[in-house]
Design a protein that fits this description.
Layout: E1 12-20, E2 23-31, E3 37-43, H1 51-62, E4 66-70, H2 81-89, H3 93-109, E5 113-123, H4 125-136, E6 140-146, E7 163-169, H5 177-191, E8 196-200, H6 216-234
């Protein structure tokens, strides 16, 4: 099985604050070795802005992107699934999308960002937020949900402008293959294009190397295709 590459050293990692949804939001920003690049939003799992999400943000920076991970929980991090469920339920989808739209605006305002649109990559809860955000935010031109959990009904994708590359596990009980097919058909029907939704012989959270469900082969394949997709869409 291929090993996960170590992130290259990046010149700047910092905690940042920015106005969003009528409040002050916080996040983790990583710059690429060149100091400049296309903007990518990294959206957390239901656990919060964990060390794992910060490491993923660093990996995107090492690949040449200006990567921002907004903190949707305001500093809280869950230590078990019950707490994660409580934190997720306390964040209405509409509020999360507002916060993420503010993060998009902040990312595009940075002088280090060379793109006029951004990519959005999210995991678990964050993968669902990628789809909710892309459905209403025209400044997102590349959307990559990793095993994205949709809370409630699918959003209205009729105004979607982003290209979508999705990664899902065949053995994922949270998002079984039939739900992935429902998402594919809804997107095809509402947008007139068929999204690239990929299934891997893995379970949920297969990219997260801190979880028992981590699958190195699926993670490597999904990561490489994501990086190539984002560079293709964002420049």
């Amino acid at each position: 099985m291929p090993e996960q590459p170590e992130p290259a050293e990046v010149p700047a990692r910092q905690n940042v604050s920015f106005p969003s949804a009528g409040a002050t939001a916080h996040g983790y920003l990583a710059l690429p070795p060149s100091g400049r690049g296309p903007g990518v939003l990294v959206i957390q799992e239901w656990w919060g802005l964990t060390d794992h999400i910060a490491e993923v943000t660093d990996r995107f920076a090492a690949e040449g992107f200006v990567a921002l991970a907004p903190d949707l929980y305001g500093g809280s991090v869950a230590h078990d699934s019950g707490e994660a469920q409580r934190l997720m339920k306390a964040l209405p989808v509409s509020r999360g999308v507002e916060l993420l739209s503010g993060a998009v605006g902040h990312l595009l305002s940075l002088p280090e960002v060379t793109s006029d649109t951004v990519g959005a990559v999210g995991f678990c809860m964050g993968g669902g937020f990628v789809l909710y955000l892309a459905a209403v935010e025209p400044r997102v031109s590349a959307a990559v949900p990793f095993y994205g959990v949709i809370r409630g009904e699918l959003p209205d994708f009729s105004g979607l402008r982003a290209r979508i590359l999705g990664h899902y596990g065949e053995r994922d009980r949270s998002i079984p293959p039939e739900q992935v097919e429902e998402l594919r058909e809804t997107l095809r029907r509402q947008t007139g294009t068929t999204p690239d939704l990929r299934l891997y012989p893995a379970g949920h959270a297969f990219l997260n190397d801190r979880r028992p469900s981590h699958d190195p082969d699926a993670a490597d394949r999904a990561w490489r295709s994501t990086v190539a997709f984002l560079h293709e869409q964002l420049g």
